[in-house]
Amino acid sequence: MTAYATLTAAQLQQEYDVVTAAFEAAKAKNLKLDMSRGKPGKAQLDLVSDILTVLSTPEDCVADGMDVRNYGELAGVPACRALFAEILGCKPSEVFAGGNASLNLMYDVISKAFTHGLLHSERPWCKEDVVKFLCPSPGYDRHFKVTESFGMELITIPMTEEGPDMDAVEAAVKDPAVKGIWCVPKYSNPQGITYSDAVIDRLAALKPAAPDFTIMWDNAYCIHEFDGDFVPFRDILTVCREAGNPDMVFEFASTSKVTLPGAGVAVFATSEANMAYMQKLLTVQVISYDKVNQLRHVRYLKDKAHTLELMKKHAAIMKPKFDAVVDMLDREIAPLGIGSWCRPKGGYFVSYDAMPGTAKRALALCKEAGVVMTGAGATYPYGKDPQDSNIRIAPSLPPVAELEAAMEVFCVCVRMAALEKLMGK
Amino acid sequence: MTAYATLTAAQLQQEYDVVTAAFEAAKAKNLKLDMSRGKPGKAQLDLVSDILTVLSTPEDCVADGMDVRNYGELAGVPACRALFAEILGCKPSEVFAGGNASLNLMYDVISKAFTHGLLHSERPWCKEDVVKFLCPSPGYDRHFKVTESFGMELITIPMTEEGPDMDAVEAAVKDPAVKGIWCVPKYSNPQGITYSDAVIDRLAALKPAAPDFTIMWDNAYCIHEFDGDFVPFRDILTVCREAGNPDMVFEFASTSKVTLPGAGVAVFATSEANMAYMQKLLTVQVISYDKVNQLRHVRYLKDKAHTLELMKKHAAIMKPKFDAVVDMLDREIAPLGIGSWCRPKGGYFVSYDAMPGTAKRALALCKEAGVVMTGAGATYPYGKDPQDSNIRIAPSLPPVAELEAAMEVFCVCVRMAALEKLMGK
């Protein structure tokens, strides 16, 4: 195997013939494989079956002197708030325990900013001429889509190896129309990057022109190491408070990838001042979230140490899948010099940067051969990757054997797309 | 006991002395009783304990070929949509199964109308100069509050014995700023009125000036008879479709008062065109709701017939409570001619109309004597009852003995407030 850049025209053609034959062979297998979303696999779901029956009697449903089966307690079961506070490193009074989806809580914060304004807003965002939102990219398509759906202007911020390019962020927040930034600070989606202390300090110390500038801190993978021990991470609420910006951040987390993706518990954490403000708005929307499920999680997960033990079991299932993906890229693609990636230690994704201008084509080929991936461009605002290069690989759902089959197809397709590009096809 | 209106000044004073002594005696008991919200009582929650363990293994969590533990299926578990469709009399494709709170689904519809507009909106409601909403009153405070929180102008529509005053509604919808109406069509909150066929027909046949006028049809008590058999009720989607207004209604229902108030399943039902439109907006907000809990409900409730059997058990607990309330009013208040009420056959409330100008005072006295009721005025827009007369009594939570103690205090307080009024105090 030789780097494609060094091949002659004849060698390129020869390689193209080989790759095309491999592609046709793959197609003939009529595969139906899915690496499109960060869904846990069945073995992970089976790990936590005991949560289904952990509450089985009326007496089980009493906690903190409260019958969780009935209405009430908007901010959630106190023991559940305390559990997440321990995991995130903040205070229970700073945690709001909601329903099953942290995305929904994020949407609620943005939606309320739009309709009512946040604590320090001069007016609801719907009354602003223009609202801009910072999107470190590559990033999470569903984040970008939330702000896009409210007509906000999405501003791409490049990602560096230690988080968002803070020079770009600091320059951008001088514009009072810039109202916030999306962050996945630990094992970022899709690159698996953990923000450095320096980046976190600069984020917390921002002096934005907008008084209601908000960091949307999606700590989705806060305890989701699959390679090595739990890595402690700073509490962003404390960092912001110490930097003189106590109300500048909403943090989000959930058990979607701890217990059950469809039936977990999601929370936001924020300053007590923000909490009081948000509760005044949220009490109009809902009497209380599903506290029975919150209590199920408390009884099942117990505390942070016990939860981390469970995460080790998830890791044992996840690591071979990530190894399969990255090992194959190292073996099949590295020598060809047509792509780059990193080997994350946590989170749910591998980020692959294809030869510029070939990502869309490579994924169209994958689809033709029965392998579904997250759409090319999805990791950039408006679904448009200016380099047409970044591809998000989600190894968690398929069993290893299927994953290897899918990755073989993927490697063939990125090679084929690269060759077409080099050959001017 | 003699009607207060016929008493002389001296007799009023004599009665006032008696009632004041009774009030002081009540206060001395240091009661702490709550009739403020329509919360089911513990006996009702205990009825459904088997739902906690109805799903106990991974295999139990597969339905319609789908593993409900994982992400996906925005509109909910098909079997759950089918169950609600059977109960409501519509098609499964017209049902969206969400989280635990129908209030949250109502809020989402209004919020999306405000931020994005509904299917037939010319623009999002936040871009309208003024938005008005019709509030049949007395009605449900949380409904009114949702629209109030978005700055809409609330218009009071009088309730008649067969539903909202349709002459008033038909006149009001000629104003293009009038965008919708709140309805609790069966066993209305708080009066327990079921809309007549004539009212329903006129509602469905409205020709509002606003193309996006929406009936918010909160069928909260669709199967909640506590006195007598289930009373069939027309499917509002069909009625609207047949009247040429297929997209004019969103219906809401939940199992909050069927299984567990804090952990039930809520749905909305609407035309397929509305459904497609709403799903495009909702998919930005959430990947999927708690399908495990949806499936729990399907397995536990089975079908409409089986659900109605469960409702009979709820009825057996509820009826003595309503009887205790209404019997006491019949005995203690009726002869005095200072209030009126009706005897509902379903729902969660008794509506009491006190002598005009005395509701606030009566409830302040109740509070002083340790009995908490829904605030006076709550059943009217902005919490302001122009007559200061309507009081919502919620008998469901306290056991009968407590309820009787609370109603004794209530009767003393409404008498005292009436006497003060008559005596010009």
UniProtKB/TrEMBL annotation, chains A, B:
It comes from Candidatus Avoscillospira avistercoris. This is Aminotransferase class I/II-fold pyridoxal phosphate-dependent enzyme. Keywords: Aminotransferase, Transferase. Coiled coil: none annotated. GO terms for molecular function: L-aspartate:2-oxoglutarate aminotransferase activity. SUPFAM superfamilies: PLP-dependent transferases. InterPro entries: AspAT_Ic, PyrdxlP-dep_Trfase, PyrdxlP-dep_Trfase_major, PyrdxlP-dep_Trfase_small. Gene3D superfamilies: Aspartate Aminotransferase, domain 1, Type I PLP-dependent aspartate aminotransferase-like (Major domain).
